[in-house]
Amino acid sequence: MLKRLAALSLAVICAGSVLMPGMTGSSIVCGDVNGDGSFSIADAVLFQKWLLGVPGTELSDWKQADFCTDDNLDVFDLTLMKKALLAETPPDPTDPVTSRPSGQLSVAGRYFVVEDETHGDYREFYFGEDGTYSYDPGRYLSNVGHGTWVTDGDTIIMTEYKYGEVNRIRIENNFLVYVAEGSDGFRYGAVEDGACFWITAKTYDQFGDMLGNRVFSLTPSRNGVDEFLAREDAPEKQYYPDDELWNVTPEEISDGFGWRIFKYAQSCETYLEYMGKVYQLGTGFGGAGTVSFAMADLNNDKLFELYFTFSCGSGMHRSQIGRFDPKTKTVSVCDITFWENDMTFMLGSDGKTIEVYRAEISTNGSFTDVETVPKEKIGVLYRYDEDMMFKPDNRSDSRFVLNEKEQMIQKHPPQS
């Protein structure tokens, strides 16, 4: 115990002075096992590969890795090296809040999936809050990979335990991108350069108020508006030259899911920014545009879809329900129209069902700050094949207009 306490003290001293005890001036940098004159994540990665016995791995000076000062290199030295590295280059990479700049996606404690080009499947990654990761290569394979991860600026560096393979993933605002350059690749399948990682629905089974499906309302702010408008594909103003764009996404939604939703105050047109692209959500001409949102994995593909209600129609007010599917990256609108009324979402008593209510809305002076008051439950959302469907509580309600497909489904509903 005394030895470990002394070693920990040494690690702290090293982190502060970056010189080994007993050395002066610019002699040798503590922890610099690759001989580049600095102590960085690269040294920890190299040392870990050396401990794993990766062929061709050499340390320029093994003594710089002897953080326990016992003339023996083992996992305890690696642990103290990482502690010293974290002390010298804060913030803590395992902290899901302080490890990222404002607006950057939180990674720790979250599950992601990425497409496997070899097997046409999706492999799942989990980034633990303790700095470890694991991944499942997919349903066709039983091998599970493990390793450690650290952040270096906007890059996640992953080192596999058994073989010492290193891979890099770049954090780009609200999603992750695989970087093939400088990466060894993952075993049991291939991930192509630039492949995007999606947050999975499984993640939120572990986080307090992030449990399962949820509904949320518009939360206007100026966050990211100028950045969004500077995009080459930014949507132009429609109908109103002095229209003003607002970010209406709650912070926990943009941080947790990588969605950023923007809405114009006068035209009421709404746009989703996701994985570097922009998608229009419904339409707002003559109505209030989007007024409520929900997230749910109704098609059971491990990813949360984004559902929204919107209204339009000058002189013929009507509201509809739309969905953005993150896997196909498409927007669709449910084939049902609710005339002369607005709709909003509520979470059912089971914490999973997305219920639909007739709503009264107030704008609080702006269509980007909409308050919806549920007045009457009118139905629920559900999945039929791969489509999003709406099941009215009262099929004879004259306020609904269904197309032929919806009419057929209502007459012959799927067996539960």
Helical/strand content category: alpha+beta
- Coarse morphology: elongated
Cα-atom radius of gyration = 26 Å
Order of helices and strands: HHHEEEEEEEEEHEHEEEEEEEEEEEEEH
Instruction: Please summarize the sheet with the most strands.
Output: 8 strands, antiparallel, barrel
What is the end-to-end distance? 60 Å
Task: Identify low-pLDDT runs.
Answer: 1-28, 89-103, 204-211, 404-412
SS strand fraction = 25-35%
Strand order of the largest sheet: 1-2-3-4-5-6-7-8
The overall strand count is 23
Description:
- By secondary structure, the protein is of the alpha+beta class.
- It folds into three domains: about 1-90, Type 1 dockerin domain (Orthogonal Bundle), CATH 1.10.1330; about 110-200, Lipocalin; about 210-410.
- It is built from six helices and 23 strands.
- The protein has helices spanning about 1-15, 40-50, 75-90, 225-230, 250-255, 405-410; strands at about 110-115, 120-125, 130-135, 145-150, 155-160, 165-170, 175-180, 195-200, 215, 245, 260-265, 270-275, 275-280, 290-295, 305-310, 320-325, 330-335, 335-340, 340-345, 355-360, 370-385, 385-390, 400.
- The strands form four sheets. Strands 1-2-3-4-5-6-7-8 form an eight-stranded antiparallel barrel. Strands 9, 14, 15, 16, 17, 18 and 23 form a seven-stranded antiparallel sheet that branches. A four-stranded antiparallel sheet has the order 10-11-12-13, with no helix packed on it.
- Strand 1 and strand 2 (about 120-125) form a beta hairpin.
